[in-house]
Amino acid sequence: MHHFSYVGQKLQCEGVELSAIAALHGTPTYVYSAQTIADNYRRLAASLSGLDLRICYAMKANSTLAIVRHFANLGAAFDLVSGGELQRVIAAGGRAQDSVFAGVGKTDAEIRRGLEASVYSFHVESEPELERINHIAGQLGRIAPIAIRINPDVDAQTHAKITTGKSENKFGIPLKFAAEAYAAAAKFPHLRIRGVQMHIGSQLTQVGPFVEAVKKVLPFVLELKRLYGIEYFSVGGGIGIVYQDALASGSAGWWDAKPAGERPLTPEIYGSALKPLLAPLGLRILLEPGRFLVGNAGVLVSRVEYVKRGQGKTFLILDAAMNDLVRPAMYEAYHELVPVVRDTARPALKADIVGPVCESGDCFAKDRVMQEVGEGELVAFMSAGAYGYTMASRYNTRAMPAEVLVSGNRFELVNARESFDSMVAGEKIPGFLQR
Ligand code: LLP
């Protein structure tokens, strides 16, 4: 479920017409639904009710301060992967003390900041990292809480660039070496073993790999509880969302109308498969969802600049480009594209949907069939709330897009479109080039 739908012929986010937002703030602009985020959060929490559950929102999916604050208000903690994300949590009023600090390449400065902010736990990915955290904790006269990320070597059956639980990935420590790594951790005087972590990949659309991974590591988790008295098990993130039929998936009954074999993964399916495995552990369970919480809660609104009729091909040239939403160029990801004002009387158009960036990789979709739209009209990419703005760049000296948060009938600009001055604020012409 999400709160994007046509009211009459106009696409709305909750009670607000997307065209009204575009008129005020221009395009390309990300628009997020606060209600959708809250619904997703509560639904996921409910599907695992009865467990001692802590949801650590994986803020790499969307780390805009307003979104982080919204999650903090909902009661979430955070899964963060850099000193910058930690600063965002603090700046937005989130609880760093309940949050986990992950990432394969934490620097000294990041570890120090994490310790100073008293993060709940560091998710450690290698033995040299154990040593480094121990060293810095010693310097600060602190004890660092840690968990080791174990790699269960399970195929998540997702895109190669976002699978992480196979042994050939750079992530975590293979299960067969994990006991040794924990024994090493136990010897460091400035570390405290607090838990264990795993994550097998992103955009999983089946529950099977989650179940397989949890089952595979369960005996080891129990062993850690016995040996070191660990207090939590983080099962990572990865719950997939609907991209293909994104707009329709917001309407009530859409899931139920699907034949059982074609239903996408839901929190309820996830919860009912995992709860019986996790409950008997008697541990706190951490979840690190990113995409599931924000993915379908955001769209990218863009304007059609040109309709170019080439030889045997039509190109819809938008004012959004790969720098604003890189997922199609980077992962061949599919994002549904819909008109902001629909007109069912118009014929269908088959076109390549492209941006203005100067390379052919700047393509959102090939041979996409959608309602005909003309120059100056607005379109929206669905399911763009996760890994949209956070992966955006300034390529071609294009400003970072604007972001708007909607709640009911209200909307507010939560991140202004970048100005040229702020884009070049850190740049200067050196003295030896002055003339
Ligand atoms: N926990 C860990 C340790 C992770 O590495 C990730 C994502 C998550 C949690 C959250 O996963 P999620 O629930 O969002 O699937 N940029 C890619 C996705 C990269 C995911 C990286 N790690 C994309 O646009 O599809």
Explain how this protein is built.
- It is a single chain.
- The chain has 435 residues and is of the alpha/beta class.
- Helix content is 29%, strand content 25%.
- The chain has two domains: 34-290, Alpha-Beta Barrel (TIM Barrel); 297-423, Beta Barrel (Lyase, Ornithine Decarboxylase, Chain A, domain 1), CATH 2.40.37.10.
- The strands form three sheets. Strands 4, 14, 15, 16, 17, 18, 19, 20 and 21 form a nine-stranded mixed sheet that branches. The chain has an eight-stranded parallel barrel with strand order 5-6-7-8-9-11-12-13, surrounded by four helices. Strands 1-2-3 form a three-stranded antiparallel sheet.
- The longest helix has 21 residues, at 208-228.
- Bound molecules: ligand LLP.
- Ligand LLP binds next to helix 11 and helix 12.
Summarize the helices and strands and which ones pair or pack.
Layout lengths: L3 E4 L2 E4 L2 E2 H8 L3 E5 H14 L5 E6 L6 H10 L2 E4 L2 H9 L8 E2 L6 H9 L4 E4 L2 H14 L3 E8 L21 E2 H13 L3 E7 L10 H21 L3 E3 L19 H4 L9 H12 L5 E4 L3 H4 L3 E13 L2 E6 L8 H5 L5 E3 L8 E7 L8 E9 L6 E4 L20 E6 L2 E6 L4 H4 L12
Parallel strand pairs: 4-20, 5-6, 5-13, 6-7, 7-8, 8-9, 9-10, 9-11, 11-12, 12-13, 15-17
Antiparallel strand pairs: 1-2, 2-3, 4-14, 14-15, 14-19, 16-19, 17-18, 20-21
Helix pairs in contact: 2-3, 2-10, 5-6, 7-8, 8-10
The site of ligand LLP has 21 residues, from helix 11 and helix 12.
